[in-house]
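Input record, target 12 of the design panel.
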């Protein structure tokens, strides 16, 4: 009498790559939090990159031109030396768009007076900064310039008018006669523009644009005796 042996089932073998693939698919179906976080992070990065590319804020040429002090001089009025300067502030389409989206710009005009010494370093007598902030007010559709020291404000209908105002400095008192004690003196002026306040909605996008600034060369001349 023949007795048939019942065959034992052969265990199923799966390749490691197949198992990994199945686990990935399963995690996709059930909404794996790690995967979702990676996707969200990738989307945010892509949005930031596209925004920077469209604005051009990360480029060195964001100011689109040469920032320079075109001319400068001083005149003496009742014992006070008054500085007059003309500055060329370049503005690119990227900055124009950023201003209307809530960005502010800070404009600095640095002035210094040094007493010359023949056999040693010059001695600094005066070092001042005229600082003004430019912002756009959407409600009034005006560009507003505020002196950070005095708080005085001026508003303009167009950005071009605003830049003309910023580029024209007249009768800025920088020195009084008692500060001079003989010898030769050099006056130097330098202009700068940099990124100012960022609204919360733009901080993540503009995080990498710390180089969005420009400083001119020093414009120097001898103080008339």
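The sequence produced for target 12 reads:
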């Amino acid at each position: 009498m023949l007795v048939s042996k019942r065959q034992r089932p052969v265990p199923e073998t799966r390749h490691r790559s197949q198992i990994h693939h199945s686990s990935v698919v399963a995690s996709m179906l059930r909404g794996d939090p790690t995967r979702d976080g990676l996707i969200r992070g990738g989307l945010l990065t892509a949005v930031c990159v596209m925004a920077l590319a469209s604005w051009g804020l990360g480029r060195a040429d964001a100011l689109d031109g040469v920032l320079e002090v075109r001319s400068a001089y001083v005149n003496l009025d009742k014992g006070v030396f008054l500085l007059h300067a003309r500055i060329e502030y370049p503005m690119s389409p990227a900055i124009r768009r950023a201003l209307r989206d809530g960005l502010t710009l800070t404009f600095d005009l640095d002035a210094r007076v040094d007493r010359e010494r023949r056999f040693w370093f010059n001695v600094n007598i005066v070092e001042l900064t005229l600082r003004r902030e430019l912002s756009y007010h959407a409600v009034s559709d005006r560009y507003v310039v505020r002196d950070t020291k005095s708080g005085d404000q001026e508003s303009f209908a167009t950005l071009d008018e605003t830049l003309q105002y910023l580029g024209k400095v007249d009768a800025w008192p920088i020195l009084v006669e008692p500060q001079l004690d003989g010898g030769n003196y050099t006056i130097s002026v330098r202009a700068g523009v940099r990124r100012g306040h960022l609204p919360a909605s733009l901080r993540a996008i503009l995080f990498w644009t710390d180089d969005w600034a420009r400083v001119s060369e020093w414009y120097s001349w001898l103080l008339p005796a």
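Residues 59-222 form a domain with the Immunoglobulin-like fold (CATH 2.60.40).
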